[in-house]
């Protein structure tokens, strides 16, 4: 290779190296600034509350579609429900995305849902993800296996705008070596490869809550969402304690709020609108109907 060609290649490599460093630094700087912003939610006083129809008595997850719609799922049936947020909740559309095919599908236990561009992902409690294309018209479903299983009880899933992947929260066994039984885990699912990353994205330890609340908290993740502005992780727990934990993107527990079970008897789903408005859904139980609550934020 001639000398002037070598100089050109070297300059090109330097440019791309600088660009990558600049982009990486930009992301780091953005996260650093976001860390200084705090969005707080008063979980005792929803801005709006909708009572859900009987079809959604066991609602277990929802995700943002647009200012007028949420997409929801419920435990017992592999059905997508497009909800219109009027004065009352209206089921605008229902789409079956998987028929029962055998013993393993006797009870679906569909636990959460996420939209990524033109695809929908639905989570089964046994660690399986259903990838759904053309969900609004002639949908097609592909079953994606992961290394997680029934023992992990995968209950929470959301899209992470930082990594551009899915995050999956385990309600029971963490699957991480040398961890206590009380440790919970969040894993990252790589959307470009349709595979689960082996190392946990986040480990949740019992001692974390003791330091923040001075109380022993039994934590069983039932839903997860990434804040669209701060990128903090918000995780619900609905067994024993009804509460919402807030973690920084780096994994530090920032706060824990308890939820009044008279307001939400079994909180199972969480999502945000792009401006940070919070939506929490609760299953119905013992004659109490299922609900979705909307919480506005205060920014500090």
Q: If you had to describe this structure to a student in words, what would you say it looks like?
A:
With 300 residues, the chain is mainly β. It has a single domain, classed as TolB, C-terminal domain (Neuraminidase, 6 Propeller), CATH 2.120.10. Helices cover 14% and strands 42% of the residues. The protein has two helices and 23 strands. A hairpin with a 6-residue loop joins strand 9 (129-133) and strand 10.
Task: Give structural attributes.
mainly beta; 23 strands; 14% helix
Mean pLDDT: 88
Q: In CATH's first tier, which class applies?
A: Mainly Beta
The helix-and-strand class reads mainly beta
* SS elements, strand count: 23
Could you tell me the strand content as a percent range?
A: 35-45%
Distance between the termini: 58 Å
How many helices in DSSP terms?
2
The name of the CATH architecture is: 6 Propeller
């Amino acid at each position: 290779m001639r000398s002037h060609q070598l100089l050109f290649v070297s300059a090109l490599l330097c440019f791309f190296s600088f660009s990558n460093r600049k982009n990486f630094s930009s992301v780091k700087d953005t996260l650093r600034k976001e860390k200084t912003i705090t969005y707080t939610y008063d979980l005792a006083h929803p801005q709006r509350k909708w009572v859900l129809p009987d079809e959604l008595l066991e609602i277990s997850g929802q995700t943002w579609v647009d200012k007028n719609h949420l997409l929801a799922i419920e435990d017992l049936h592999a059905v997508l429900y497009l909800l219109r947020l009027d004065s009352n909740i209206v089921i605008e559309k229902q789409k079956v995305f998987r028929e029962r095919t055998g013993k393993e599908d006797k009870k679906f236990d569909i636990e959460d849902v996420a939209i990524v561009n033109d695809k929908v992902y639905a989570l089964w409690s046994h660690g399986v993800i259903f990838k759904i294309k053309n969900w609004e018209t002639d949908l097609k479903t592909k079953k994606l296996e992961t290394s997680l299983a029934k023992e992990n009880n995968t209950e929470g899933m959301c899209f992470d705008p930082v990594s551009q992947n899915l995050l999956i929260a385990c309600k029971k066994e963490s699957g991480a070596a040398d961890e206590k039984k009380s440790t919970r885990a969040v894993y990252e699912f790589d959307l470009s490869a349709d595979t689960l990353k082996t190392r946990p994205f986040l480990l949740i330890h019992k001692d974390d809550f003791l330091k923040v609340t001075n109380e022993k908290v039994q934590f069983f993740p039932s839903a997860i969402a990434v804040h669209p502005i701060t990128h903090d992780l918000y995780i619900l727990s609905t067994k024993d304690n009804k509460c919402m934990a807030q973690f920084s993107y780096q994994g530090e527990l920032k706060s824990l709020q308890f939820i009044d079970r008279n307001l939400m008897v079994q909180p199972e789903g969480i999502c945000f609108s792009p401006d940070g408005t919070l939506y929490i859904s609760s299953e119905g139980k013992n004659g109490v109907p299922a609900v979705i609550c909307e919480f506005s934020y205060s920014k500090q």
